[in-house]
Amino acid sequence: INIQKAIDSSPEMRSKKALIENFIKGINEVDDVLDEWRSYVAEEKEKAIKTIIETENLKEAETRKFISTAFETGSIKTTGTDVDKILPPISRFGSGNRDEKRKTVLARLLEFFERFFGIV
């Protein structure tokens, strides 16, 4: 109940709510909860980034570097050419709709970042 109240009262923790609740549901008697938490977060983070890369057809190495930089600096860079480097090849002329793809990818990466930033 205390954990639930703390999560609900903090705007920063709301994006992490499902992650925390799933961890609590799955935890049993363990020697070191902190190690278990770190492992759980690392696994969930890896699953989430793989899903984004695969579903959005992003360049894997560039995307991982982009996300790593975001965690180091504490924010996702939404301007400049960094986002364009991770996008799949799309025609700038014609029906590729690069702007929509860019917005979609940025939204998913921002959601990912908010979910995992500052959690460990």
Average pLDDT across residues? Answer: 86
Q: Which sequence of SSEs, written as H and E, runs from N to C?
A: HHHHHHH
Using the alpha-carbon principal axes, give the shape.
elongated
pLDDT < 50 stretches = none
What is the distance, rounded to the nearest whole angstrom, between the alpha carbons of the first and last residues? 21 Å
Radius of gyration of CA atoms, rounded to a whole number: 17 Å
Helix fraction, binned, reads over 70%
Which percent band covers the strand fraction?
A: under 5%
- How many extended strands? 0
Q: Number of helical segments?
A: 7
Q: Output the structural class.
A: mainly alpha
Largest sheet: none
Note the topology:
Blueprint: H1 2-9, H2 11-14, H3 17-26, H4 33-56, H5 60-73, H6 82-86, H7 98-116
Helix pairs in contact: 4-7
Structure characterization notes:
This protein has about 120 residues and is an all-alpha fold. The chain is built from seven helices and no strands. Helix 4 (about 35-55) packs antiparallel against helix 7. The longest helix is centred in the middle third of the chain and has 24 residues, at about 35-55.
Describe this protein with a few key phrases.
single chain, 120 residues, mainly alpha, 0% strand
